[in-house]
Amino acid sequence: MNERDRDRGGDRDRDRGDRGDRGDRDFDDRGGRGGRRRGTKKKVDPFIADKTLKVDWRDPLLLGRFISDRGKIVPRRVSGVTAKNQRKLKTAIKRARQAALLPYGGHRVPLRNL
Question: Of the residues 1, 17, 57, 107, which has the fewest C-beta atoms closer than 10 A?
Fold first, then answer.
């Protein structure tokens, strides 16, 4: 094999170097990997916590809580809503946008007495 082939990685018998012996990774005392969250409380679905709340496309104040500043629907992992209620929220927000109760973009319209 000539020197040009070696530069392209053609030498299959070369030493790949020290990869570590897998004992140098950070593990905590329980045997798992690090990165455990501390201080974050599990989010509770507001529709389950408060039985009087109901997903309704005609309630822009409630739906506005689940829309970001840029006008996007907030994901479940941020809002804490269950998958079933997230689907209901999605359709309610889309219906409210269609009926001009909520803006499509990020600029919020000041809500009058609705």
Answer: 17
pLDDT in tens, the chain (114 residues): 666 655 666 555 555 666 666 665 555 555 666 666 677 788 899 999 999 999 999 999 999 999 999 999 999 999 999 999 999 999 999 999 999 999 998 766 555 554
Q: How many domains does the chain have?
A: 1
Within-domain flag for 61: yes
In a domain, 79, yes or no: yes
Q: Rounded distance, CA 90 to CA 82, Å?
A: 12
Buried b (16+ CB within 10 A) or exposed e, 93-107: beebbeeebbeeeee
Quickly list H helices, the chain.
Answer: 3-7, 46-49, 60-64, 76-79, 83-98
If you ran DSSP here, which 8-state letter would residue 27 be given? B
Q: What is the CATH number of the domain that holds 88?
A: 4.10.640.10
